[in-house]
Specification:
243 residues, alpha+beta, Yope Regulator, Chain: A, 5-stranded antiparallel sheet, 6 helices, 42% helix, elongated
């Protein structure tokens, strides 16, 4: 599909190019203009990153060398590239993953509503986690999901320059490990996270994540029940923290 616009590029012609390209399912679209505007250069670059069609934006000028007849000079302004296509695929994959995660958390929060108030006040987002306050500054109950794994945790992070406080809180809870795991009903991972300033207490499962949509009900129920048990196990000891 070729659009000749022997004037300054405009939105109307850009819209026509996109419409005609879609109607005929063109593999290549060429837009020839006398003066390409900056916003249209960016738009064509974006189209190359996000669509299967190759878009080319060319500038045409009339030139004459000495007494020669006038001749057209075509200058490539922007066109498709392998790097751009790869970047576009990555962007589409990121957007798709974000949309899937938002649906996953929406379903989970709907399921949780009848079981616990832990998730009340939380809105579904497109991140890989949702969090709720554990009742103390810097302590949060977090449910996380990746493509093929999931976990629940108590995350301890009181912010900048609070490394010592985080470690002290973690140590106080660790002193009651047997009691906490007894109420929780399973072993937990106790991680001081020495490479970070934070600490966490978690249970993690491999093999099912947000990409395994046929197993969402099973995984969402597991996350909800585990978070209920984790909060019940930690609540009395968090209440007694001296930090």
């Amino acid at each position: 599909m070729i659009e000749n616009q022997l004037e300054r590029s405009d939105h109307d012609h850009l819209g026509k190019i996109i419409t005609c390209t879609a109607m005929i399912d063109a593999e290549v679209a060429i837009w020839i203009v006398a003066e390409p505007r900056a916003e249209h250069v960016r738009a064509v670059s974006w189209l190359n990153d996000t669509s299967a069609t190759d878009f080319w934006l060319l500038k045409i000028e009339g030139i004459r060398i000495g007494d020669s007849p006038p001749a057209p000079l075509l200058t490539l302004i922007v066109g498709p590239s392998e790097e751009g296509k790869k970047a576009g695929e990555v962007k589409k994959e990121i957007a798709e993953s974000a949309n899937i995660r938002r649906r996953f958390w929406t379903d989970l929060l709907d399921r949780a509503r009848d079981k616990t108030r832990l998730h009340s006040g939380i809105s579904p987002g497109d991140d890989s986690w949702i969090s709720a306050s554990a009742g103390k500054t810097g302590l949060a109950y977090t449910s996380s999901v990746t493509q093929h794994a999931a976990q629940v945790e108590l995350y301890i992070d009181r912010g900048r320059d609070a490394d010592a406080q985080n470690t002290a809180i973690f140590s106080e809870l660790l002193a009651h490990q047997d009691e906490i795991e007894g109420v929780y009903g399973a072993p937990l991972e106790w991680q001081p996270l020495e490479e970070r300033r934070a600490c966490r207490i978690r249970e993690r499962w491999e093999g099912i994540g947000y990409r395994d949509e046929e197993h969402w009900p099973e995984l969402q129920t597991k996350l909800i029940d585990a978070m209920i048990r984790l909060e019940a196990a930690l609540r009395p000891f968090i209440a007694r923290l001296t930090i």
